[in-house]
């Protein structure tokens, strides 16, 4: 049996579309189609049925998927066993993440990991929220960076750390509009807000047991944290973002904390992997490295990534330290 065809079948079953699988895994759509057609010919059955733009598993395809996943895991186990016999950490890791982690969270960790284990090839897949909320599609990933607790017992969650949301604005905005002194004053300020599927994200803040929830009214909204950060740095308004996502901008003075004593309740940052999945030596090394990295992050000289500084030509506005 063509093992590459089996691998492509699992990828398409996971993405439920040739086009999505092509984009997610970087495989030409024509190659996916050809391999799956050859696999169906060799098996004598149709593995997929079309439902609009989606490809859904047929009854035969669903049965074959169970075996295909075991075949992939057995192949990975064989590769890992050979690597272990050479005392090497090698192979390919496919890691998934949502956009808010992106270059601000995962890239520095993966860069540091590659420095320690240069024989490991790392494939990073960024998932949309809708895709990410479909656990049945996650079979193709070794690990998933996830903010919050997993909704399914099928996952093992290894906690890397915690993060909270807080309020930020550029010095330019605060010099022009003033700085709120209490949460109630947020009603008089411009907001840059995250758009959830049915509404704007609420700003939930806590301070010494006191809880305040603000429903922002914003002229600038997006369902992408990078765009929100861009507009906040550019002076469009106050933004509600994870602290780790604004670390470098605050260090450089391009964003400042607003109401610094207020922040959201902490949320766990977890590395998830399937409970029933074979844990290869390379992934076990990756899990251990992730845990160590966020315990001792300050000791690593890993390059940080920040949004390009946004300011008018020829000006460099900084808020004077009090």
UniProtKB/TrEMBL annotation:
Q: Which UniProt keywords apply?
A: DNA-binding, Transcription, Transcription regulation
Gene Ontology molecular functions:
DNA binding; DNA-binding transcription factor activity
Residues of the HTH lysR-type domain = 1-58
The family note in this entry says: Belongs to the LysR transcriptional regulatory family.
Alphabetized PANTHER family for the sequence:
HTH-TYPE TRANSCRIPTIONAL ACTIVATOR TTDR-RELATED, HTH-TYPE TRANSCRIPTIONAL REGULATOR
Under what name is this protein listed? LysR family transcriptional regulator
- Organism equals Pseudaminobacter soli
Source taxonomy lineage? Bacteria, Pseudomonadati, Pseudomonadota, Alphaproteobacteria, Hyphomicrobiales
């Amino acid at each position: 049996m063509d093992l590459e065809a089996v691998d492509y079948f699992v990828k398409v079953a996971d993405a439920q579309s040739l086009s999505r699988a092509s984009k997610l895994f970087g495989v030409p759509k024509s190659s996916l189609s050809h391999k799956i057609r050859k696999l169906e010919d060799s098996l004598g059955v149709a593995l997929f049925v079309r439902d609009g733009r989606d490809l859904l598993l047929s009854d035969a395809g669903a049965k074959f998927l169970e075996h295909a996943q075991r075949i992939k895991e057995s192949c990975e186990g064989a590769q890992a066993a050979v690597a272990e016999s050479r005392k090497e950490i090698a192979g390919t890791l496919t890691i998934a993440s949502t956009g808010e982690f992106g270059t601000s969270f995962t890239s520095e960790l993966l860069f540091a990991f590659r420095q320690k284990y240069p024989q490991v090839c790392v494939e990073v897949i960024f998932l949309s929220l809708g895709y990410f909320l479909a656990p049945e599609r996650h079979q193709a990933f070794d690990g998933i960076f996830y903010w919050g607790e997993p909704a399914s017992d099928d996952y093992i969650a290894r906690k890397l750390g915690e993060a909270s949301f807080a309020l930020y604005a550029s010095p330019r905005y605060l010099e022009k509009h003033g700085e709120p002194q209490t949460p109630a004053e947020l009603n008089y300020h411009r907001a840059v807000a995250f758009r959830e599927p049915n509404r704007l994200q609420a700003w939930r803040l806590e301070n010494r047991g006191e809880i305040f929830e603000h429903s922002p009214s914003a002229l600038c909204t997006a369902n992408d944290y990078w765009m929100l950060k861009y507009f906040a740095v550019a002076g469009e308004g106050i933004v509600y973002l994870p602290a780790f996502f604004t670390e470098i901008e605050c260090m450089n003075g391009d964003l400042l904390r607003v109401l610094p004593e207020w922040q959201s309740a902490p949320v766990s940052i977890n590395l998830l992997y399937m409970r029933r999945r074979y844990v290869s030596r390379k992934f076990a090394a990756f899990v251990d490295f992730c845990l160590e990295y966020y315990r001792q992050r300050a000791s690593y000289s890993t390059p940080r990534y920040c949004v390009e500084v946004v300011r008018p030509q020829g000006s460099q506005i900084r808020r004077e330290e009090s």
